[in-house]
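[audit] Reproducing an earlier prediction to check determinism. Same input, same settings, fresh worker. If the tokens differ from the archived copy the diff job will pick it up downstream; this log only records the rerun itself.
[audit] input (222 residues):
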Amino acid sequence: MPGPFAGFKWLALLSDWSVFAEGFIQTILLSALGLSLALGLGIFFGILGTSHVKILRTINRIYVEFTQNTPLVIQIFFLYHGLPHLGIMLPVFVVGVLGVGVYHGAYIAEVIRAGVESVPRGQLEAAYSQGFSYWGAMVHIILPQAKRISYPPLTNQAVNLIKNTSVLAMVAGGELMYHADSWSSNNLYYGPSYVVTGLLYISLCFPLATYAKRMERKLEVS
């Protein structure tokens, strides 16, 4: 009986390499758009979390606590299976971008909030004295300084986001894990399929993780 990594299984994978390439490209697109959404939401809600207005801080906490304390797979299932019952049909790719974007936006909001709060409060007051509005002070004074603290954890969130795109395989998301599952389910060549899939994820995540470690050492925030 041939083993799980028999040579002919690798040859079959090589002949169907386009299946994995399509999923890999889809994962890159999904990760890029999801990360863009997560950064936008994270910066917006992170700044709300540092506001002196209570209702804005409350909005921040509702978003962060609800999202962080709900499994990503539940959120994906709601977008894919729940919204159609409300008359909202979204393409599965959009479900993926919204799912990972909103989920990681909550974590990035906490990173941004922590970074902003690490900047001495006196600098915000000094910006006010120079005529800056709250948002003007944030954009021109506070956020540029908060970047030093926020870069390494933001990079780690990018790595986690890429890995979490694999959850979409549960709703036919069309990304790398879905293509690997579909291909191996048809021929039962699971060994080569999952090895190659893992290596492709590593090729995306390892450079980012290495970059985060270098940033931590460079900025002395590890």
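[audit] rerun output stored. Observation attached for the diff report: The chain is about 80% helix and 0% strand.
[audit] end
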